[in-house]
Design brief:
about 220 residues; alpha+beta; two-stranded antiparallel sheet; 6 strands; about 45% helix; about 10% strand
């Protein structure tokens, strides 16, 4: 039951500059830290990156971008790669304000038919990737062993890191669930934060597995 007590917050998230941010003005680390960013969660239905999708929520504004990036930069390096992969597969749709839904089909527009959306998202992800790279370069110590630097990149977040995540974002609703995601324990004992549609699917699979085990126990 370790995971149940440890993972009280969704584990997969990435950030993007808010839509109204002027990309042309974001040309230095100092201006990057004063840019308005939003955080988006990913549904953890599968641990395969290509099978994830953006949670059905319009995202959360980050209150202190500099502190947030300093704290989570190594982890964001990994999740930005996941977001870039999803974009290349046509599965990175960002829910807009007022249109977020608990159903996946209501979240995903036809990205393949929207070249401008694709280019905008590609540039925003590239900007975040560049931000993290530049931050790493500025904070890389020459006397730090290469193995130590590599170990910090993409290190999995622990419970304390995840619990503190909420302190960095602005909550505009009274819902206890972040990103309209719900915590579910799979039949093999793993905790996943998933959208309502996948929550129901996992529940069905758990019930079927329980039924099969009971049937097999009957001989």
């Amino acid at each position: 039951m370790y995971e149940l007590h440890e993972y009280t917050t969704p584990r997969y998230f990435f950030i993007l500059p808010a839509r109204h941010s002027d990309m042309a003005l974001i040309n230095s680390v100092r201006s990057w830290f004063h840019t308005h960013y939003k955080l988006y969660f990913l549904c953890e239905y599968s641990h395969e990156p290509n099978e994830m999708h953006v949670a059905p929520h319009e995202g959360y504004s980050i209150k202190t971008p500099q502190e947030f990036i300093v704290r989570y930069a190594p982890y964001l390096r990994t999740t930005i790669k996941i977001a870039q992969l999803l974009l290349s597969l046509g599965g990175l749709a960002i829910p807009q304000l007022g249109s977020a839904s608990t159903a996946i089909n209501h979240v995903l527009p036809s990205i393949s038919d929207n070249d401008q959306y694709y280019e905008d998202m590609k540039n925003q992800l590239k900007m975040i990737d560049s931000l993290i790279n530049r931050y790493d370069n500025q904070h890389k110590h020459p006397d730090t062993p290469a193995t130590g630097q590599q170990k910090s990149i993409g290190a999995p977040l622990q419970g304390a890191d995840l619990r503190e995540l909420e302190s960095y974002v602005e909550r505009v609703d009274n819902k206890r669930s972040l990103g309209n995601l719900y915590r579910k324990v799979t039949v093999d004992g793993y905790v996943r934060w998933v959208c309502l549609e996948h929550y129901d699917e996992i529940s069905f699979k758990n019930e079927m597995s329980k039924y099969i085990k009971e049937f097999e126990a009957m001989g």
